[in-house]
Amino acid sequence: MPYPSRAARLWRTLGAVFVVLVFVPPLLLLVSGSFTEPGRPPPPTPRLVPDPLSTVGYEQALALGGLVRATVMSLVVAAVTVPLSVLVAAWAGFALAQVSRRVTAMVVGASLLALMAPATALLLPRFVLFRNLGLTDTLVPLIAPALIGVSPLYVLIYYLAFRGLPADLYDTCRLADLTPLRTWWRFALPVVRPVTAGLTALSFILTWSNFLDPLVYVYDRDLFTLPLALRSLSILDPTDFPVFLAGAVLATVPPVVVFLLAQRWFLQSDDPTGRLR
Q1: pLDDT score for 102
Q2: Which of 44, 75, 116, 196 is the most buried (most CB within 10 A)?
Q3: What's residue 4's pLDDT?
Q4: Apex CA 274: angle with CA 268 and CA 277, to 5°?
Q5: Residues 7, 10, 16, CA angle at the centre, nearest 5°?
Q6: In angstroms, rounded to a whole number, what is the distance separating the alpha carbons of residues 189 and 29?
Q7: What is the model's pLDDT at position 86?
Q8: Distance CA 207, CA 44 (A)
Q9: What pLDDT was estimated at residue 171?
């Protein structure tokens, strides 16, 4: 019907305008502040165009904060963690979609209970485990959680996506004598590609911005990830705020790029689950 369609478009437009008004101004101030000349006191009022424009903040951020090495470390962690966590979550979600509903209900209930547990409550036992294994002050504790899909939320999202596929698809694959792994790879996973794109972007952003785990497990400055390197810039003199803002801008670029690359998939109109539109 035309009226609900117009109303839905209107609400979507209003929602998009609200999001732009909330998130864009801070980003503009972040970028403009990074081009302010260091050594000057912060302006009494925000300025979108600083006077004079200066790139010294970026030069000092790269020189003082070790951002290049920290960026490499963050990329190494993300390059291993993101694909592994998405892969494990996809396997687990597909398996849940194939078993009986009683088993699924038990696993989903356990996953919801796990989601309610605060992440900080798991730090102490994990720290003791990695310390006894001699893995502290390495990147292994930052990557190892990917072996269990990082978060039960990823598994639940994949479960809902695979459960939403037509039952005829799975029946046809069984009649064709396809193994569950081939069914998952050749038919189920391509259909839920928007879900994979969305979870990949989410996993990358969470991995890239992870501050607590590197703070607990990593002590060698050469192994610092980007959030830890940015923390070292936060102790500079207040007049050097453009240096910190420049580091924040550099740290923001990769997640934005990943989001823009992923949105072409999770905004597709042929998403069969309708969960990422």
Answers
A1: 82
A2: 196
A3: 54
A4: 50
A5: 145
A6: 41
A7: 93
A8: 35
A9: 83
For residue 213 the two structure tokens come to 């785990």
Q: Which regions of the chain are under pLDDT 50?
A: 1-3, 269-277
Residue 252 near residue 244 (C-beta atoms within 8 A): no
**DSSP secondary structure letters along 82-148:** HHHHHHHHHHHHHHHHHS-HHHHHHHHHHHHHHHHS-GGGGHHHHHHHHHHTT-TTSSHHHHGGGGG
User: Tokens 């839920």 identify what position?
Assistant: 192
52 preceded by a cis bond (ω within 30 of 0) = yes
Q: Which residue has the tokens 């500079």?
A: 236
Closest among 218, 226, 256, 201 to 75, alpha carbons compared: 226
Provide the residue type at 50 as one letter.
P
Q: Give pLDDT, residue 205.
A: 92
One-letter amino acid identity for 91? W
Query: Any idea of the CA torsion for 173, 174, 176, 179, to the nearest 10 degrees?
Result: 80
Residue whose C-alpha is closest to residue 224's, from 99, 71, 85, 37: 71
Alpha-carbon gap, residue 91 to 88, rounded angstroms: 5
Q: What are 91's two structure tokens?
A: 């396997």
Identify the structural domains of the chain with CATH numbers, from first to last.
56-265 (1.10.3720.10)
The whole-angstrom separation of Cα 119 and Cα 126 is 11
For 44-65, what is each residue's pLDDT tens digit? 777 777 877 888 888 888 887 7
**pLDDT value for 41:** 75
Are the C-beta atoms of residues 127 and 236 closer than 8 Å to each other? no
CB 88 within 8 A of CB 148: yes
